[in-house]
């Protein structure tokens, strides 16, 4: 149950309730509205729908109308909207809401608010700050990346930091709760009361638990299955309403008060009755007016019904519905498995097995993935599916590649070695070699099968598509980059289309092409939430949603679902993020303990060099960079070498060795030509600026960085150009703001030092002091001391000791160990399980969570 926002207590103006569709977001708002009205508060409710997104300011207009006359549909007519400016519309809404007694604004379906109204939300919340107005909005996930206005996530991050917004995620029931929902006390009590109620209350409750997603017709369908009269069912439903189990009725259908009760009732039903109810639900959706039921509901009923409905139609529907779920959703495994059992068509069975193998890989069940891929191979080679030779070759290639991914996920090095010896075609050989980090050899094998044009057209035919995806992956690592044309529409009946799009998106993100990855997803009608964990993490990371990226990366690491080279680049991204957020030793430990199966070891050395540089050890940083360059050359890979040479150029400049800096800059330019991406070209230009203080090259670098439209890239470019004297010092202020949007507090400390040196005013003095204190606490908790601590803070050791003394005196901590323990303590309020940061109240020692950055400002590694 969500707490009702208290108007009398200080707190955020807006609470966002986020969760997947079907999680009861609407029911939660209904419950909040009921409790608010019982407490004498005014409820202002607005429910946007998808059609409203096309009309600018419609949401704010509707909100103004509801605030003018809460609960009346004619309220909007009381507000003269025509001719109003956006600013006056926001002012009007604020004035109307402030004039109501303890108003609670409820927005059901915030994902459908029009872009113009979304852009006005910050002004609206700031206008309501300090008032007794509280707002709650639901947002169903996943939300399309392309649907959100530019900068929305960064704006939300600022609002959270300013205390105007909080986000609550509604979770599904945990597996143990689903396995034994009756064990939950509230569900157990309800079930006992239902069993004791007069008949037919219990069977009707069970039937409605299964059928209520059908809407208003659920009661009639329950009567059919239970062989009861409509009046008997209606009487039982009235009893359930009186008991508080059910709500609604009429044209709006029925809603249960508790999701746990629904799960308990579904679990209490026997298999025979469950199949009957599922069959009724399926036919109601297929043949009747209930076709608008959620696709996930249909999938669940098809699995339960089994052969009680048309098996072939059911198998086809399950495969189609699986494509509508996120690739990390465990139901994709269940549905593809059911489809493979139901169908008797050999081609469809192979397709279902391939889909099952991909789904199992993405959800971490690599043993199942391997069995499914091998079963598909057996079907292809033994049953001779009704398909031409070319299609059969493509299916066989898909199955072999899926088995390789499964072996990689299992860490089966011996199996991969055997597969390399047994691989027949150059494509299979190349794929196997890439899984074992032999990229140069893989590229040579693949060159025998794929023409190496600078840019390949969109391929046609299953085998050609698979080869093109592999070729794109090879070119991203070995170079030069040869992207395939924009993804063609999904071939009919291809369960691996989304998987291939996800692989392509991962490669685009690996080479730093965020715009291309988002374009691919948009054209392919995929959302970030549809992607596997690793690709989702890398997308979030490059867009600047660092904490989300860490969450997704942890899932990918746990499930071992990432494949080369995404896994190695993602591991580096996690270490870089950890460093930027003030935990360099943890980043170093993570970098050094990376699983050697990730491959691309030169990227680990590059990460180590960055960490050593941040800790003030230029000699170790230089040695790590030298090792990285040598290893990349030995392995015949180019990915990341542009940055290695840029870092070496920087180090040479810092030593005053400009002849060596020019040599390194020339190597960076050569690497950029070998790689062939805009990001590599940017790094080459920056190396030229470092070596020559070339203003023209600086201008080109800034143009490239702005065209890439990625906050991390742009921040680092602005900082380098300004500190190297190739551009105005005022660029540092822009870099400082961008780094703040990413919560990169370690980098901000470095930029602050440069701003003071160059006479640029550091904004927000009080916020800066708090951030310095937070960074100091993070670094102490990370284990830094002495010169390393001073180097990370860009201060002297004496200054650091003085700052520590003040912090101890103000908080009551008496040692670094006590401070570190407080920083690492979990948030008592139950926040994000990341490192806490010190929060100080006068004379008291408290620990709170570091403000979680929800920013989606676009991020790319430099």
Characteristics:
862 residues, mainly alpha, 5-stranded parallel β-sheet, two-stranded antiparallel ribbon, 41 helices, 9 strands, 61% helix, globular, disordered C terminus
Structure description:
This protein is mainly alpha-helical and 862 residues long. Helices cover 61% and strands 5% of the residues. The protein has a five-stranded parallel β-sheet with strand order 2-3-4-1-5, with helices on both faces. The chain is globular.
Structural class: mainly alpha
Mean pLDDT, rounded to whole units? 83
Oligomeric state: single chain
Shape from CA axes? globular
**N-to-C span:** 44 Å
Strand runs, count:
9
Strand order of the largest sheet: 2-3-4-1-5
Helicity range: 55-70%
Q: What fraction strand?
A: 5-15%
Low-confidence stretches: 72-83, 143-151, 175-179, 452-458, 826-862
Number of helical segments? 41
Radius of gyration (CA) equals 29 Å
Largest sheet: 5 strands, parallel
Give a quick precis of the structure.
The chain is mainly alpha-helical.
């Amino acid at each position: 149950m969500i707490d009702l926002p208290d108007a009398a207590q200080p707190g955020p103006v807006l609470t966002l309730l986020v969760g997947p569709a079907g999680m009861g977001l609407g029911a939660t708002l209904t419950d909040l509205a009921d409790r608010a009205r019982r407490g004498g508060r005014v409820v202002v409710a607005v429910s946007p729908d998808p059609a409203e997104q096309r009309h600018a300011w419609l949401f704010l207009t509707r909100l103004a109308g509801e605030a003018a006359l809460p609960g009346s549909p004619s309220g909007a007519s009381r507000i003269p909207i025509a001719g109003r400016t956006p600013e006056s519309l926001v002012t009007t809404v604020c004035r109307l809401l402030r004039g109501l007694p303890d108003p609670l604004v409820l927005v059901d379906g915030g994902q459908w608010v029009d872009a113009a109204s979304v852009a006005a939300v910050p002004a609206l919340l700031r206008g309501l700050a300090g008032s007794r107005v509280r707002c709650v909005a639901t947002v169903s996930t996943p939300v399309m990346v392309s649907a959100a206005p530019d900068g929305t996530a960064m704006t939300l991050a600022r609002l959270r930091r300013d205390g105007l917004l909080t986000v609550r995620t509604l979770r599904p029931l945990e597996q143990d709760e689903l396995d034994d929902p009756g064990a939950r006390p509230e569900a157990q009590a309800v079930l006992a009361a239902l069993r004791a109620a007069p008949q037919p209350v219990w069977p009707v409750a069970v039937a409605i638990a299964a059928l209520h997603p059908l809407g208003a017709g659920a009661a009639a369908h329950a009567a059919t299955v239970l062989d009861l009269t409509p009046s008997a069912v209606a009487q039982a439903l009235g009893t359930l309403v009186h008991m508080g189990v059910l709500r609604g009725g009429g044209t709006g259908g029925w809603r249960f008060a508790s999701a746990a009760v629904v799960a308990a009732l579904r679990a209490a039903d026997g298999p025979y009755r469950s199949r009957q109810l599922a069959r009724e639900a399926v036919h109601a959706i297929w043949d009747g007016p209930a076709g608008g039921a959620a696709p996930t509901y249909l999938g669940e009923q098809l699995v339960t019904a089994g052969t009680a409905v048309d098996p072939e139609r059911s198998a086809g529907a399950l495969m189609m519905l699986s494509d509508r779920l996120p690739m990390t959703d465990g139901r994709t495994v269940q549905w593809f498995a059911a489809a493979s059992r139901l169908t008797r068509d050999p081609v469809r069975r192979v397709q279902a097995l391939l889909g099952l193998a991909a789904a199992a890989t993405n959800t971490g069940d690599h043993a199942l993935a391997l069995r499914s891929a091998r079963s598909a191979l057996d079907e292809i080679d033994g049953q001779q599916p009704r398909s031409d030779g070319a299609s059969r070759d493509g299916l066989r290639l898909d199955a072999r590649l899926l088995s390789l991914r499964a072996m990689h996920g299992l860490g089966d090095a011996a199996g991969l070695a055997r597969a390399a010896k047994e691989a027949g075609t150059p494509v299979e050989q190349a794929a196997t070699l890439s899984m074992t980090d032999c990229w140069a050899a893989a590229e040579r094998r693949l060159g025998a099968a794929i023409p190496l044009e600078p840019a390949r057209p969109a391929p046609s035919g299953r085998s050609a598509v698979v080869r093109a995806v592999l070729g794109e992956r090879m070119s991203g690592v070995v170079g030069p980059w040869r992207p395939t044309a924009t993804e063609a529409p999904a071939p009919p009946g291809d369960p691996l289309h989304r998987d291939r799009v996800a692989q392509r998106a991962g490669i685009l993100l690996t080479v730093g092409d965020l715009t291309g990855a988002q374009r691919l997803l948009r054209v392919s009608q995929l959302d970030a939430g549809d992607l596997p964990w690793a690709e989702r993490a890398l997308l979030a990371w490059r867009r600047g949603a660092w904490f989300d990226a860490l969450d997704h990366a942890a899932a990918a690491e746990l499930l071992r679902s990432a494949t080369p080279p995404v896994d190695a680049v993602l591991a580096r991204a996690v270490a870089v993020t950890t460093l930027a957020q003030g935990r360099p030793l943890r980043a170093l430990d993570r970098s050094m303990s990376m699983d050697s199966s990730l491959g691309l070891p030169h990227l680990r050395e590059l990460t180590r060099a960055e960490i050593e540089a941040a800790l003030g050890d230029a000699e170790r940083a230089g040695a790590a960079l030298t090792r990285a360059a040598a290893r990349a050359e030995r392995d015949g890979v180019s990915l990341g070498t542009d940055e290695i040479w840029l870092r070496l150029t920087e180090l040479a400049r810092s030593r005053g060795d400009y002849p060596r800096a020019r040599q390194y800059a020339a190597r960076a330019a050569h690497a950029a030509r070998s790689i062939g991406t805009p990001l590599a070209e940017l790094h080459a230009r920056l190396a030229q600026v470092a070596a020559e203080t070339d203003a023209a090259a600086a201008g080109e670098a800034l143009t490239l960085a702005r065209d890439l439209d990625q906050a991390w890239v742009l921040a680092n470019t602005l900082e380098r150009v300004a500190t190297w004297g190739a551009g105005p010092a005022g660029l540092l202020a822009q870099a400082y703001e961008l780094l703040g949007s990413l919560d990169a507090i370690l980098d901000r400390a470095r930029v602050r030092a440069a701003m003071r040196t160059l006479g640029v005013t550091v904004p927000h003095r009080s916020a800066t002091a708090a951030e310095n204190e937070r960074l100091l606490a993070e670094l102490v908790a990370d284990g830094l001391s002495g010169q390393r601590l001073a180097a990370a803070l860009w201060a002297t050791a004496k200054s650091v000791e003085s700052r520590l003394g003040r912090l101890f005196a103000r908080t009551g901590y008496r040692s670094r160990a006590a401070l570190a323990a407080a920083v690492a303590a979990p948030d008592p309020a139950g926040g994000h399980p990341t490192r806490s940061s010190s929060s100080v109240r006068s004379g008291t020692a408290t620990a709170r969570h570091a403000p979680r950055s929800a920013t989606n400002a676009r991020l790319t590694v430099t």
